[in-house]
Design goal:
alpha/beta; about 160 residues; Rossmann fold
Length: about 160
């Protein structure tokens, strides 16, 4: 069974999970070149509840956010890589620049972002906290980013 779900599928799944009193955790990102910082974030997110849903930016939204030539890895490959991780329960691709629409659909109990954010700047924070959910920031691993990996590769050529 695929972990990759549509908006409609994840909406139905979340209703069942909440009826079963499961704690739903949400995080999101581009996950363009998966690295140790991503793994730390996903592990920490999973520890916050029973089910981890990852919002994955589509290729078009990654390009809008990061600029060309990003993404380096196609969305279907990025989704497949994430689905191989045991801490990830579901993946939902979203075409918008922010996951706000997806957050409002899922209504997670916990919203997790990397420590490069401040709580005040986390998209969906007010919505999630408005119904009693919480926002958790996971400290970043130093010198671990897709951008730094790409720069290192480019400088070695």
């Amino acid at each position: 069974m695929s972990k990759i779900k549509t908006f409609k599928e994840i909406s139905s799944i979340c209703k069942k999970l909440k009826n079963g009193k499961k704690v739903v955790v949400f995080t999101n990102g581009c996950f363009d070149i998966l690295h140790a910082g991503h793994i730390k974030l996903l592990k920490a997110a999973r520890e916050e509840g029973d089910i981890l849903i990852v919002g994955l930016n589509t290729d078009s939204s990654v390009e809008q956010i990061k600029g060309s030539p990003r993404p380096f890895i196609r969305e279907d490959d990025r989704a497949e890589i994430l689905s191989a991780l045991e801490m990830v329960d579901y993946i939902v691709l979203f075409p918008q620049k922010t996951p706000e629409k997806l957050i409002k659909l899922i209504k997670p109990d916990v919203l997790v972002k990397g420590g490069d954010y401040r709580k005040e700047t986390v998209v969906g924070r007010q919505f999630v906290e408005g119904y009693g959910g919480k926002v958790v920031l996971v400290p970043k691993l130093k010198n671990r980013s897709t951008t730094s990996i790409v720069k290192k590769i480019q400088s070695s050529q």
